[in-house]
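Note to self: the last two entries modelled the partners one at a time, which told us nothing about the interface. This time every component goes in together.
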Amino acid sequence: MTNDSTQQKVYSVSEITRSIKRLLEGRPDLNNIWVKGEIFNLTFHSSGHIYFSLRDDDAVITAVFFRYANRSLDFKPREGMTVHALGSITVYEKRGSYQINVSLLRPEGVGDLQRRIELLKQKLAKEGIFDPARKRPLPFLPRRLGIATSPTGAAVRDIIKVALRRFPNIQLVIAPAVVQGADAPVSIARAIEELNRPEHDIDCIIAGRGGGSFEDLMPFNEEIVVRAFYNSRVPVISAVGHQVDHPLCDDAADLAAPTPSAAAELVVPEKKELADEVDYYRLRINNSIQSLLGRHGDRIEAVTRLRIFRDPYEIVNRKEMQLADLANKMLISLKDAVASHKNALQRIPDLRMLIEKLIMSRKHAFLMAVRALEQLSPLGVMQRGYAIVLDEAERVIRSIANTGIGRTISVVLSDGSLECNVNSIQTGGYDGKEKDGKKHS
Amino acid sequence: MEKKKTAKNTPDKQAVMNFEKALKELEEIANSLEEGELSLDESIRQFEKGMQLSKFCRLKLDEAERKIEILQKGEGDRTIRKQVDVDSESGEIANDDDMQGSLL
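The predicted structure of the combined assembly is written out below.
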């Protein structure tokens, strides 16, 4: 061992620094490790890099949090804050210093919170609260949309803006809630419950808030909030702005959206699109029927050429004419019948004349017969001078044998009779010569 | 699943639900008419049905009247709905001192 620098190897600063660098940066126990400490000398550089130191009671380490890495930062680091930093030890040769190059920074306690969330998640999962099978479809056309969030935050503005842009005549019901701090869990749960009341007539609920730090979003990991999502009878969309870890309520909701405006996009349909779709189908249906009618054109034309279509009154008119015809014929035949009966009636007086004539002729014949008869009557003969001779019994004596001498006979003349006694009887007939007052007796 | 049924189905709500069905049916009618397999009579029947459905859909889209309401704590357990104006460009609710806070 000697102190003579001329006899020993001399390293440059760069060489020795490179050695140190290799040594430190090559060690696995200094790579990707969590370091806990209190922040001090905090600087937000205009370049976007964040510089600070971490210390505990006995030691200090400088830290660099480059812009590309700190973009995922979900809280604002402050002086004096105790944090957990994930990073690797690197050596900055120009300054001869080592530091921790941070890739992730979390406030202390977050680790505990995450463990708590993990336990809650396991417990609720056992109950089936995150069962994907129980997720309901969102209404196709929500008419009244419920919004559970802060009435003054960016989330409510984003939802209103997107909803009205997509469906200008939608109805929105805002249930104001505290979304940050100790009151937030109960307030959010209460807002969801309220929107479920039938009198509000809500089709779908969006519940959430805009992005924030892990702590800001913590209420949406609370059991009471997760259960409120699960118990909602109205389909509910979780709309919590987040970049890294999604909140537990996402798993209990019917649908999870990464931001409030995304939730509105998902549930509110674009009215114009729907109207266009309806019109599009309408047009297609119209075109189809037009071309179909064109194809059937000839047949249809043939049909429409039928007289019934051209002049529907034609048939009526024809029937009317037939009816008039029949009526006419009926009238005529009725007239004929009447006329013929009338003629028959008119012929009746002739008949009477005929009868009268007949009677007259019969009467005449009768009179003639009577006259003839009168000529033949014995009275007539007697007027001409003949008499009838009767015996006592008033019997006509036709022969001399019918009487005897001494018997009484009656001689009947035309104007009376004579009682006579037979004095004598002579035989021989009458010669027809009339002797005055001479009787054959 | 059973425990999470919608609170009630008013006839109006039922009708809104039917928009989707009507649109679907409209699409089916458009397709079947384009296939041209239907008889003339059936085609005309379908055409008329399609026209009715499209009218129904347009009616449903225009049915609701834009309304923005905010719930407020009323007396006791009651909440009241209050109508508010919003700027549809920014989504900003017209400022009203009452509207601050929550239902708690």
